[in-house]
């Protein structure tokens, strides 16, 4: 009998895993169960940068790299990191397909559509929202685990994979650990047709990303393929209940926009114009995370990938890439078990091996994301006092082995020169020095 695999969640991670399993020369049955009625049910977020060694590797192994290139934006690698005065600590232009830095951007909806469009018909079961999971008393057989959906109850799976994100319904099968509030709240919104409506802002973002940091706050703007900006305002609220007790409706643009302008009132006019031009997609939420280094004891027949396994804040840019790396490793484990003489028996040890490797990778990325969050939003006088730490963190996963200490030396040397240049030779004053640093209630 071929192995029978259930994947819960039809996001990019679950869909990529299905592609990789179906690429196996072995006969393996795979079904994705998705609670949404269709792929168009809700907005799927902003832009993703995929990395050579993880995200792009998964896309290539799935046989979709050429199709991916039709949507990839290499000019989206442009990036500015500044303070609230628009003093640019890092200012990198975009690249081309031929001379890129190995981290092209793609809009999340485009990536998901690409993955869904190339799955065989019937692999994704839409409208299957998981209600509960039951296991007969005393049974340790994976095939006895029953998935209870609204209109059906199904069992007989050799492996159930939770690819169902932050609030995973599968996670409680392997651990009691739940996500907790990271200390940061995000308010997301969009700026449509930015080239026409706000040409100066379009020129500033330069088809890439802008990260402005000061006063324990951040504005993060990314240009999407449709010409709009996806923007996150990051705040450090007094408590996790701030969204519930806020004096204004964080889900109503006419109230949220003036409130955000008040939050960022002493920031550079071009940065405030990002908020002033907001016109759609308002959404606010606390950023939750799993404890750094979360692990669990292996349970035969169940495992996790992506945010379900290692939810983290977005500050290291590793979340989706780590999840896609999970799919490569787990698909390989499933294929290995399937090719053995006893597939069902071999599957448990193969998945356990996948989990051991994933725990190591995940802890590194979770720790990096946590440190970068603290560096940006919690340490005093960021980014002036923390830019070296932030830049070094950004290179941790990109510079292997002995290259990393060399890269750190180069970063320190660059910012030594950078500060000298701004102090002695920046006669044009390319930023607004009149905007003083405001003391924070956290200091």
From TrEMBL:
Gene Ontology molecular-function annotations: FAD binding; monooxygenase activity
Gene3D superfamilies: FAD/NAD(P)-binding domain
Keyword terms, alphabetized: FAD, Flavoprotein, Monooxygenase, Oxidoreductase
One Pfam assignment: FAD_binding_3
Protein's UniProt keywords contain Oxidoreductase: yes
Stretch forming the signal peptide: none
Domain FAD-binding: 5-339
Top-rank lineage group of the source organism: Eukaryota
Record carries keyword Oxidoreductase: yes
Protein name: Oligopeptide transporter
Top-level taxonomy: Eukaryota, Fungi, Dikarya, Ascomycota, Pezizomycotina
């Amino acid at each position: 009998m071929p192995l029978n695999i259930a994947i819960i969640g039809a996001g990019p991670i679950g869909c990529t895993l299905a592609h990789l399993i179906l690429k196996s020369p072995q006969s393996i049955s795979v079904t994705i169960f998705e609670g949404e009625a269709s792929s168009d049910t809700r907005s799927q977020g902003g832009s993703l940068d995929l990395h050579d060694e993880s995200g792009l590797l998964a896309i290539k192994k799935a046989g979709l790299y050429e199709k991916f290139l039709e949507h990839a934006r290499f000019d989206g690698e442009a990036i500015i990191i500044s303070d609230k005065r628009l003093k640019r600590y890092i200012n990198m232009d975009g690249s081309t397909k031929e001379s890129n830095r190995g981290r092209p951007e793609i809009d999340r909806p485009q990536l998901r559509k690409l993955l869904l469009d190339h799955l065989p018909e019937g692999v994704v079961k839409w409208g299957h929202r998981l209600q509960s999971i039951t296991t007969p008393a005393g049974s340790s057989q994976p095939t006895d685990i029953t998935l209870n959906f609204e209109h059906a109850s199904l069992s007989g799976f050799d492996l159930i994979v939770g690819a169902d994100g932050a609030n995973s319904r599968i996670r409680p099968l392997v651990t009691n650990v739940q996500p907790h509030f990271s200390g940061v709240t995000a308010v997301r919104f969009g700026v449509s047709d930015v080239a026409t409506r706000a040409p100066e802002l379009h020129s500033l973002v330069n088809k890439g990303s802008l990260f402005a940091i000061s006063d324990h706050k951040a504005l993060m703007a990314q240009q999407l393929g449709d010409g709009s900006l996806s923007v996150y305002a990051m705040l450090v609220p007094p408590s996790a209940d701030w969204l519930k007790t806020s004096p204004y409706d964080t889900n109503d643009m006419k109230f949220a926009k003036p409130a955000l302008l008040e939050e960022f009132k002493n920031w550079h006019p071009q940065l405030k114009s990002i908020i002033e031009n907001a016109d759609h997609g308002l959404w606010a939420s606390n950023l939750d995370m799993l404890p750094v280094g979360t692990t669990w004891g292996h349970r035969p027949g169940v495992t996790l990938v992506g945010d379900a396994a290692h939810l983290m804040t977005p500050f290291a840019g590793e979340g989706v890439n780590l999840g896609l790396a999970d799919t490569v490793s787990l698909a390989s484990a499933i294929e290995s078990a399937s090719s053995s003489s006893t597939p069902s028996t071999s599957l448990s040890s193969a998945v356990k091996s996948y989990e051991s490797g994933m725990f190591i990778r995940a802890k590194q990325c979770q720790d990096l994301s946590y440190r970068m969050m603290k560096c940006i939003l919690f340490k005093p006088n960021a980014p002036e006092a923390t830019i070296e730490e932030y830049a070094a963190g950004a290179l941790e996963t990109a510079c292997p082995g002995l290259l990393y200490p060399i890269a750190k030396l180069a970063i320190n040397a660059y910012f030594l020169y950078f500060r000298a240049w701004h102090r002695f030779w920046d006669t044009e004053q390319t930023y607004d020095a009149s905007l003083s640093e405001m003391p924070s209630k956290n200091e």
